[in-house]
Every structure is written in structure tokens, then in C-alpha cells.
Amino acid sequence: MLRVLIRKEITETILDLRFMATALLCVVLIPLGMLVNLQDYEQRLAATQQEHQMYRQRYSVPVAPAWGKEEAQGFRPPSVMSLFASGLDPFLPDRVFTSPTGLFRTERHPRLDSAQTLLFGQMDFAFNVTFILSLAALIVSFSAVCGEKERGTLRLMIAHTVPRGKIILAKVVGKYVLVVVPFLVSMLIALLILEMSPNVSIGSHDVWPAFLVILGVTLLFILCMVSLGLCISTFTARAMSSMIWLFFIWVVLVLGIPKVSPIIAEILYPVESENAFSFAKRMAAEDIREEFNQRSKDIEKKYSDQMDKEWNPKFIQIAKKYRNPSSSEYSEEDYLAANKKLNDEWNKANRERYDKLHAVMLPLAEELKRHTAQSLGRLEQDHRNRRKKQVALGLNLSRLSPVSSYAFILAELAGTGVTEMDNLSQNAQRFQEQVKDIYYDQAYNQFNSGQYRPKAYNPFDPPTLPDMTYTRVSLAPVVQTVWPDILLLILFSGACLTLAIAGFNRYDVR
Amino acid sequence: MIEIKELTKRYEDGVLALDHVSYTIQPGEIFCLLGANGAGKTTTVNILLDFIQPTEGQASINGHDCTKFPLEAKKYVSYVSENVQLYGMFTARQNLRFFAELGGKKKLTNQILDDAMRSVGLPEKALTMRLKHFSKGMRQKLGIAIALIKDPPAIIMDEPTSGLDPKSAKEFLDQLDKLREQGKAILMTTHDIFRAKMIADRVGIMKQGRLVAMRERANFKHADLEEIYMQEMQADSA
After folding, report:
1. CA distance, residue A134 to nearest chain B CA (Å)
2. Is the dihedral of CA A112, A118, A120, A124 positive or negative?
3. Which residue in A69, A197, A314, A504 is deepest, having the highest Cβ count within 10 Å?
4. What ipTM was reported for this prediction?
């Protein structure tokens, strides 16, 4: 019975113009999107390789260290999986600049050659699935039940010995197969396009497992959309009503929730902007410096006062002794000799005072450095935590839409998601430490003031700057990260199917 | 075969569509249900086919309660609607095969399907024609073929002659005669008093949800059924 119903659904849909149109869209847009993305990826890869090469030629062996002139740089190559979902890739830094201070910074070169992409949006696989395929799934399924009621065929079907649950199941399977088949065909063409590129190897270990997971998740996402279409179809009496409702829901799920949730998160959990935070950080640093300046001034004054207290009477005494005409020892020559002797002693004492002061100021400078680092670190950490909370709130809110869940999963699997930001920081930190050991510790002295100055090193054995080995997050932890989103997709499709079955059991077929 | 006991249906808006209606249709009997629009004829059919639930009473086919065990009850019945709607992109043969398979008739050869369509008067060229090119009469004939190929002991027909030309209607009545001979219990709702008189073994006249009259063939064979019908309508109005 089920087989008969499925066969009928498939045959009926295949003969429908809507199916032909959506199949054509899939088969054209997905490979086309992949081709465009492949070209973009190859350009980005070539640009990174070129930059890296130029950097190696110029900086790999530093001739002599010079402050601010040489910073060992690391390059983040584009992820091959970004072909599927560009995600945060256009905004993630592609360069890491290390420094002798132990702090690194990251940067991204603005890519004006992709201005058109920025203007019109990236037509990657994720876009094609979330926008085009989701719409195709709804177009194929929106009239599954109410359309049949309108045509009058449902009445005759129900008059036969067919359980209603089987009708719904057959409709889900039939419509699903008819969205999945063009999708798989388009994926096959897309893979052939990728395989033709010398820069992409689908068979490589860092591609095919992630690709298979992407494929599986996409199939699950399509099921979500087909189930949604069917669900609404069982709660409406006319195909037009179903179409209008589904269009509204599609706009909310695809355009509304993912874009509005960060705004709601900002309202619910406000965090100061990056500019405001930078300003606050600068102010905090200035306050700390001011406090320490005052303390160092006080110490200097104390030592200076001690010197004055100790030595001024001595200078006054010899002046009174030798320069007072009423004095019996009045003599300019003796004064000059005594003054010179006293000056020599003062100089010696002053050097000792300076050494003592230095001994006191050095820990103070260390303390300033430590205190500044700790305070700013705390501020930074606090800001980062609050920002993370806000982002998490926004992400969780956006998970009301399966489109968001799907986008998160895809971006994470493609190495262009939120996790990649942390991964980039970890890679950069590793690189910074590596460069510090190999280069900065040999080439720079840290001065008491906390500043760094270049020092000479053996020109016959100059250090070689290492390359940043960029490690991607392996698949297992990524799957662990995206598992809740996969579960949400399963729940969403399950809920839609349950509602569809419940709705159809009460559906008025007249 | 078809049994209706104290069947009542009140819709959510309060309209009483059926008011304690009872009758039984025996095998080999054609029972015509006459009545104006909104009299409750189609509501009866809808309850028998589990399209809607009754408020009170019971409807059963071959002893199976249509509300409690609808799938079991529907095994023994076929349905022809007033305006047969089928899958327009399918051919007549594909439509017939699909509904035959739903009715439990698997692995039917094209020959059997074609014969079934020929038997209801569909022309040869129509057998492989897509339904979207069919006239209403042709669709109606295919609807009858769908009902017959299942070969059930009971058939429910809701205004089946509506839209049929006189020749097709005559062929349809001949078909009904054959079905009666085969022992089928047939419930036919209709406005067509002329054809009801020609074919029915019994007629029931419905008005405002009530079965206001029941006549055996012997009572209307030589009388004017239209007059009886009008009398019942007027009597009730008075």
C-alpha cells in the first residue's frame, strides 16, 4: 500500500511543472555556486601563497633586529571546506603578527576584488541550500494535502482502505525523494567541478569525512523543510492559503529569526561596543600608569630629599668655611678644592643612590607591568565573557529557526564558524610562543622600563623565522560541537511530521 | 449490507444535517435517496465513508461500524462521487491502476484495466489519454470503473448521473442493473427523479435532515414519483 502511494506521489510530482522548475534550479545553481566559490577559493589560496612567499623572501632570515621593523608573520590559509560555507571566512583575520612583547595581533586584508560578492552576497553551497533548496522543498510540498483536497482526489483516496498516516508518510517520502534526487545530482556535478581543480582533492582525509557529514545534515535539513511544507498543508484548506502561510514562515525562518536574534540578544544582554571598550581599556591603563608614576615620583623625591638633606649641609658648610671673608680659613682655592672633593663624593653617593633607586624602581616597573597586564587582562576577559554570553544568547535565540541550526552546522564543518575564531587565536598563540623561543628571546632585550630593544646577535648564526603551521579543528570535536544543532533539526522535522499526521487525522477531506 | 440506525449529525455551527435517520440496504438492492440540496443526502454518504463523524447513531457496512472501524468498513464499499476528480497528469489507465491497487487489486494487467474501462463505455482512445483531456462525462465513467474494479459488495454513489449526457446516463443505468444482478447493495443519492424511478428498488425522500418518506418499487412503479416527492415536500412545509 505504502509503495503504491509513494509511487503515485513521485509520478505525480515528476509530472508537475513545479518539480521541473525546482530541479532545474538545483541542478544549475548548486554547481554554479560551487564553480564561483571554487574560483574565489583558488584566488584566496593563490593570494595567501604569494604573500607568504614574499614574506619568506624578505623576512625569513633577519639581517639585524630593529624595533618595530620585524614581526614574524603567520598566514591562515583558506579552508578548502569554505567552498561549502564561507561563514565567517570573509571576516576572519588571515594574518598573524607576532611581537617581542608576547602579544600577537591579527589582521585581515580587505579584499576589494570581491566587492561584487560583498554587494550581492556570496552564492555558496550554504546559501543555495538555505535559500533555494528550502524554498524548493516548500514549493514541492505546500499543496501536498490541501492541493489534493482542492482537486477533489483526496476524497476518493480516503474512500479507499488507506490509513491516513500512510498517506502522509507516502507524501513525505515522495516529496522528499523528489527534492533529494535533483540535489544529489547537482552535488555530483559540483563534486566533478571540484575534482577538476588541482587545488582541491575530495578524497583527502580533511575533506571527505566532513563532506559526508555536510551531505547528511543537508538531507536532514531538506526533510525539515518538506515536513514543514506538509505540516502547513494539513492545516489549510486551500493551496493558496498554504502557500501564503509558508512564504510568511519561510521569511521568518530564513530572514527573520537569524537576523533579528542578535539584535534581541543585544537588547536583553547589553555589552559595550568594541570602540567603547577600547577607550575604557585605555583609560584604565592610563589610570594605572598615573598611579604608578605618582608612586615612582614619590620614591624618587624621597631619595632626592635624602640626598639633599645629607649633602646640602656639607656644601653649605664648605661654602661658609672657605667663602666667608670673615672666616679665618677664607680661601677660594681651598674652597674649589674642597668643593671638587665634595662633588666627587656626591657623585659617588648619587650613583649609589641611583643604584638603590633602581633596585627599588625595578620591582615597581615589574609590578606596573604585571598590574597593568592583570587589570587589562581582567577587563579583557570580562568583556570577552560578556560578549560571549551575548553571542551565545543570540545564537540560542536564532536556533528557533532550523535554518540557523543548519547554517551553524555547515559553518563549523567548513571551518568557518564561531569555533574557528578560537582556533585562530590558539594557532596564533602557539605561533607567538614558537617565535618567541626561536627569535625574540635571542634578538631582543627586555629593559627595566618594560620596553624591548633589539640586541645584536651572532650574524653568522641568525635565527630563522618559522612558518605558522595552521591546524584546523578535527572533525570529531566539531561534530561534538554541532551535535545539539543536529538534534534540533531532527526534533524540528519530527515535530512537523507529528503535527502533519495529527492534523491529517482530523483533516476535513470534503 | 448497508445499515443506518438513528443517524444524527449536527455541525459545529448548529445546523442539524441529519435527524435520527434509519434504513437498511440489502444485497441486490438499489436504494435511491432523493431530496433537495441540504436535505442530508451527502452528509449520510460522508459518514458512511468516514469523511465526518456522526453526532449520534450508527452507520455500518457489512456489519462493520463506519466510525469505529472505518478501514474495515471501507473494504466492502466503493464510492462514485458527483464530480469525479482524478489525477489530471495521469492517463486513465494509470488512474485506474492506482485506485485499484488502493482497493487491494494488485498486479492487474493492462488488459483487465482496459476491459474495465471499456465496460463503462469509455472509448478506446481514452484508455491511454491523460485525464486533463477528459470531459466530465468521461471522468464520471472512469470513476464508475474505479468503483467497479474493486468489486465490493456495496457501492455508494453521490449524484452519479450529474453531468452525464442522456446516452451515458442510459449506459450507466444498464450498468447498475447488472450490478444489482450481481447482488451489490447500492446507495445512490440523486435529484434525478426520472432515473430513480427507472432503477430504484426503494426510494427514500429526505428533507431537512429527516427521512420523510420511504417507498417500495411496487408503490411508485405505476405512480408518479415526482408527484409523491412534491407531495412530501409540500406536506412537510405545510
Report:
1. 26
2. positive
3. A504
4. 0.85
A176: closest CA of chain B, how far (Å):
20
Q: Which helix (H) or strand (E) holds A156?
A: helix A153-158
Query: B205 to chain A nearest CA, in Å?
Result: 23
Q: At CB < 8 Å, which residues of chain A contact B?
A: 1, 4-5, 8, 11-12, 15-16, 151-153, 155-163, 508-510
- Asked if B159 and B206 sit in the same domain, the reply is yes
C-beta atoms surrounding A276 within 10 Å: 11
Choosing from B134, B151, B168, the residue where a domain stops is B151
Kindly report the number of other CB atoms within 10 A of residue A384's CB atom: 12
**pLDDT band of A117, cuts 50, 70, 90:** low
Domain end call among B124, B151, B178:
B151
Residue A379 to residues A280, A289, A292, A374: CA-CA distances in angstroms?
9, 16, 19, 8
Q: Which grid cell is A84?
A: 561549502
Same domain for B119 and B213?
A: no
Measure the CA–CA gap between B210 and B213, rounded to whole angstroms: 9
Supply the CATH number for residue B162's domain. 3.40.50.300
Q: In what order do the strands lie in the sheet with B210-216?
A: B77-80, B154-158, B185-190, B30-35, B202-207, B210-216
Q: How do residues B78-121 score in pLDDT, each as one tens digit?
A: 998 888 888 888 899 889 999 898 888 888 888 888 888 888 88
Number of structural domains chain B divides into: 2
Q: Dig out the grid coordinates for B84 from the structure.
A: 469525479
Is B146 an 8 Å CB contact of chain A?
A: yes
- In DSSP terms, which residues pair with B24 in a beta bridge? B3
The angle, 0 to 180 degrees and rounded to 10, between the axes of the packed helices B136-149 and B166-181 is: 10
User: Within 10 A of B228 (CB to CB), how many other CB atoms are there?
Assistant: 19
* B133 and B159 within one domain: no
**A69 or A402, which is more confident?**
A402
Cα–Cα distance measured from residue B85 to residue A148, given in angstroms and rounded to the nearest whole number: 10
> Does residue A113 register a pLDDT over 60?
no
Q: What is the sign of the dihedral through the CA atoms of B224, B226, B228 and B234? A: negative
- Is residue A1 scored above 50 in pLDDT? yes
What is the residue range of B130's domain?
A: 83-151
Rg (CA), chain B: 18
Residues of A in contact with B87 (CB under 8 A): 8, 12, 153
- Residue B135 shares a structural domain with residue B22: no
Is the pLDDT at A247 greater than 50, yes or no? yes
Contacts A–B by Cβ distance under 8 A? 67
Give which of A160, A171, A506, A507 to mutate to test B binding, by max B Cβ within 10 Å: A160
More reliable by pLDDT, B238 or A86 = A86
| pLDDT higher than 50, residue A68 | no
Q: Is A74 exposed, middle or buried (0-12, 13-18, 19+ CB in 10 A)?
A: buried
Q: Chain B residues with CB inside 8 Å of A163's CB?
A: 71
Same domain, B52 and B131: no
Q: Do A156 and B84 touch (CB under 8 A)?
A: yes
Residues of A in contact with B152 (CB under 8 A): none
Name the band, by pLDDT with cuts 50, 70 and 90, for residue A495.
very high
DSSP reduced 3-state for A289: helix
Verify that B142 and B157 share a domain, yes or no: no
